[in-house]
Fold:
Amino acid sequence: MSDTSFTPRVFSGIQPSGGLTLGNYLGAIKRFVSMQDEAYETVYCMVDLHAITAKLLDPKELHYNTRELAAGFIASGISPEKSILINQSQVPEHAQLAWIFNCIARMGWMSRMTQFKDKAGKNAEKVSLGLFAYPALMAADILIYHATHVPVGDDQKQHLELTRDIASKFNHDYGVDFFPITEPVIEGAATRVMSLRDGSKKMSKSDPSDASRINMTDDVDTIAKKIRKAKTDPDALPSEAAGLEGRVEARNLINIYAALSEQSVDQVLAEVGGQQFGTFKPLLAELAVEKLAPISSEMARLMAQPDEIDRILACGAAQAREITAPILKKTYDIIGMVS
Ligand code: AMP
Ligand code: TRP
Structure:
């Protein structure tokens, strides 16, 4: 349980590594938006320092991606009035605390991170030290705000367990109760949106097949076509969730429908059970277009005003540092750094 003496505060981040998918939207951003109106302070971040861990990006591309992601956040409903919106590199305390956490986290813990193993593959000798240290920077992102709650998709669970381990070890080693034990918030019908071409793989912006994902910037026809072509099985849809057992593609499309329409899987199946995919897919396409088209047109409008985006991020960074600077100062004091 998180310590109740900490201010309820939400932190989450997304990498500006190019393009936002329906997976990011349903697994993360939708929840970011709803948490703004609950009893939390909310801080949302474009994690640009993480975006260069897998490979160095073209500087122009990183710059563009960061603004585009900010536009995606705002167009989805994140309000700079209600939330602090930042890019990570403008708040230097993230990287400063990450160094301390590099000295807290153990090599053995880091070696067990499945995302590292997946990304490094057989090439572990050739990947950057930053890719290995990635989860310590992520822990710093969260704990430099003393964040108590972190909304993410299912794939980030292990990194959040590591964040708790780092906080506990720091508190224990220095005999303090300084960092909160953060709660992951992994909720909703679509915490793991799967590829439209292969129901066993996560929908991802890095999948070589564009048909495998819905991008937030896809136009109406593209969205409809991708859903029409999505892999399915020949059977009709069941009327209850138990009937989705072993039918990964069917389950994925139903989960997407449920998340977009804000219903439970059982509610959706009560409505569409018995239908063939030929009937259900156009309904799903219509719903996806209805929810996503306004976001993508708003993103395009915002992207035409890059100065306004930069202004919002600069203002976010100033607000953020009012929280992060004192927490870093206190951390250094605990450790014994002379100031
Ligand atoms: P990333 O794009 O890897 O920086 O992920 C940003 C956020 O989106 C994280 O909270 C992820 O867990 C979430 N996310 C990414 N892909 C998916 C997916 N296919 N399904 C659900 N959540 C996802
Ligand atoms: N690792 C996350 C991802 O790839 C992004 C991230 C970086 C993050 N720092 C974070 C998410 C802090 C939540 C909190 O999806």
Q: What stands out?
A: The radius of gyration is 21 Å. The mean pLDDT is 96. The chain is about 55% helix and 5% strand.
